[in-house]
Design goal:
The complex is a heterodimer.
Chain A: H1 2-30, H2 46-59, H3 61-66, H4 68-88, H5 98-102, H6 104-127, H7 129-134, H8 137-158, H9 164-175, H10 186-201, H11 209-215, H12 217-220, H13 233-238
Chain B: H1 36-41, H2 52-66, H3 68-76, H4 88-93, H5 100-115, H6 117-121, H7 123-126, H8 133-142, H9 151-155, H10 162-175, H11 181-192, H12 201-219, E1 234-237, H13 248-262, E2 266-268, H14 285-302, E3 306-309, H15 313-327, E4 341-342, H16 343-352, E5 368-370, H17 374-379, H18 388-400, H19 431-452, E6 456-459, H20 462-471, E7 482-484, H21 485-492
Parallel strand pairs in B: 1-2, 1-3, 3-4, 5-6, 6-7
Helix pairs in contact in B: 2-10, 5-10, 8-10, 13-21, 14-15, 16-18, 18-21
Classes of the chains: A mainly alpha, B mainly alpha.
The complex binds protoporphyrin IX containing FE (2 copies) and iron/sulfur cluster (2 copies).
Chain lengths: 244, 506
Amino acid sequence: MLTTIYACLFYGATAIFLAGMVLRITRFARTPAPLKIPTMPAPTTKSGVAYRLLREVTVFESLFRANKWIWAFGWIFHVALAVVLIRHLRYFVQPVPSLLALMQPLGVLAGFAMVAGLAGLWGRRLIVPRIRYITGPSDHLMLALLVAIGCSGLLMKFVAHTDIVAVKTFFLGLMRFDIQPLPSDPILLVHLGLVATLMIVFPFSKLVHAAGVFFSPSRNQVDDSRERRHLAPWAAKLEADRAR
Amino acid sequence: MDAIVPGSDADRLDPLEIPTLCPGAMAASQPWGASPDHQKALGFPGELVDDWQNVAIAKMGELLEKNRALRVYLDSCVKCGACTDKCHYFLGTGDPKNMPVARQDLLRKVYRRYFTFTGKYFPGLVGAEELTKEVIDDWYSYFHQCSQCRRCSVFCPYGIDTAEISMAGREILDAIGKGQKYCNEIIGKVHTIGNNLGLNKNALRSTLEGLEEDIEDDIGVPVKLPLDVKGADILLVTPSADFFAEPHVDGLIGYAKVFHAAGASWTISSYASEAANFGMFIGSYEQMRLISLRIREAALDLGVKRIVFGECGHAWRVAYSFLNTLAGPFDFLDQRYPIPQHICEYTWDLIQKGALEFDKSKNDHIRLTYHDSCNVARATRMGDQPGGQFEIPRAILKTVCNHYFDMAQDTIRDQTFCCGGGGGLLTDELMDIRKKGASPRMKALKTVAEDHGVTHMAAICAICKTQFAKVMPDWGFERDSILSVHQLVSNAIILQKPKQENDDDR
Ligand code: HEM
Ligand code: HEM
Ligand code: SF4
Ligand code: SF4
């Protein structure tokens, strides 16, 4: 029974996550950017832009210039999240590549770092009046959700262990549409329930920032407006009335 | 106690000082509304339409389809707070709605309510709100407290540019009949007369002739300011402020002297006698395009080979970043030169070639700093290297002036502060917000004045110059401490007394 519910939950959550993100991203991609608006100074080549985006995504360059505290907490949170997620791949691949096996100890650290980073960000939301002013209920809920996922994971790791092998069998089974029993430890169920929630809300929340950063015209445009004429399709139609 | 003691660290002004929040402090600051005539001249409804709510939402939907920036920016903000202390209007007023993210939220809350799933079904959770009269009122106040300077966009991890949001906001306001007098009246003048000031061809001609006489009286060299000369090589497009007011006009004289020294064949056009393009301020692609097309027309009619822009901040943005899009392609111009070119690029080229001679000591009474105009700094380039927009004007100034000092690093270049009067705010009824918005720049200036005895500040933007002439006296500077870059060039340049002119400047 539990197993069936969670199997359905994860199929549903995956479908919503994927469909939602594809919809979002195609919307972003289809909407034209009528004018050249890179924040200058901007790279003058495509590879320069790729490098600019790479810096934004990996070291949060602009954020670093803006505010060292937000940068520190935010960067720690995201890097730790990335490590945790990569580490989680072991539930989905068989056999586990040796590199993935090697980074397992690092992963434990990452679990704590992730929660610590989130706590720092949350603290600022509560303490700094400017940030409290712009914080809404959904911003707190998002942090609560991630903290709860992190804490439940850490609990499993250090306090109430679960049968990892069975968890893996369940997820490998899901991927082959061959449903296997899921252990019924309450913390695992909480962890997985929250993860499914995260996947469902992802495309409909501010979490689309993960995709948005790549579509932001102020960051992804090349500074070449004098050399190359940039014209949106709807703007090209206006030119029909042009005498010369 | 309030006096500033030079050299004492405790009393040093900090341009980046974060104020305490004063909610609602600037809610009442609104520009005058456009009259029905000014509205209709631009194709906007004369007054608030009956079903304004539907019209506004429909307009927002249209913009979301047409402008990727708007959609991505409205969706992607994570409320991280990095931008909250970056806007000069927030620093100057403490009004939280002048924090860039909060300014965006004024539009975002309505976007969420009408265009997103979460906003429709869980409005309280994500701060979605109905479009009400109060919201429109807030839009009118706070989208006219954004000078579209893009400082926030530099620091946002996703480059979210609040300028795009306030432009969209103003476009929606225009669409429901709530336009702003200052911008819309001026745009009307450009359409009918050719420039923001409403100077007609005859007035322009006599102004230019008067300037020619002044220059000749002054230095004994017949420097010309040609108007509507067919077959000239260069069309100069400059803000109309250059035609009459100090210190702008001294900049124009500077361009003329540089052209003269280079032996260039150039002309001003009475049809496109305006570099400024207020279509950008109201966010209207269509208006911006119509104004830009005048420049194309003038270039074709006069048969010029090159287009050079005078000193104007947002004009250089429209020219550098948008002109090719709005009025290109310019395949009829000489492709060996940048199209269009900035007057600073033009002058710097000549300096590098050794084609200009200067007597720097003519500027020795001046201890100078330079204000990077926001639109030039963060929305354009000069030269062929990124950052040329910072280096080239400074290089020119250091060539013509012995005493040059930069203001604090975190207030210049791409972190520069707006003068406080940009984005269509340069109108008297907004003087309060203008003065408050100027305070970060003024504090940085005050500091460099104390440290290095700086007496003057140069800028390459007509709006900056006008604004600073108004606010600098409040900070203990003379009205005329704000200078055009080409005014300093004009002071120092050595022109040969009547003789054969040099060759081409190529
Ligand atoms: C391309 C990938 C991503 C990039 C470049 C990115 C970047 C950023 C940046 C720069 C911030 C602002 C600083 C901060 O508050 O931490 C941020 C905030 C945030 N990110 Fe990401 N992110 C990415 C992916 C993700 C993913 C996959 C998640 C979630 C599972 C996530 C969750 C969050 C949350 C919750 C915040 C807000 C933190 C707060 O409330 O203060 N991000 N992200
Ligand atoms: C379907 C997806 C997921 C499954 C099956 C899963 C399962 C697990 C399991 C079984 C553990 C315990 C590890 C152990 O005892 O050694 C764990 C730990 C953890 N999980 Fe997840 N999890 C999933 C998704 C996520 C997500 C999306 C996040 C973060 C947003 C996350 C964050 C954590 C953390 C921080 C820990 C503790 C540190 C660690 O062991 O890496 N999990 N997870
Ligand atoms: S664009 Fe400039 S004026 Fe507008 S919100 Fe950003 S920093 Fe403030
Ligand atoms: S810096 Fe960007 S993402 Fe952060 S609150 Fe400001 S607009 Fe939003």
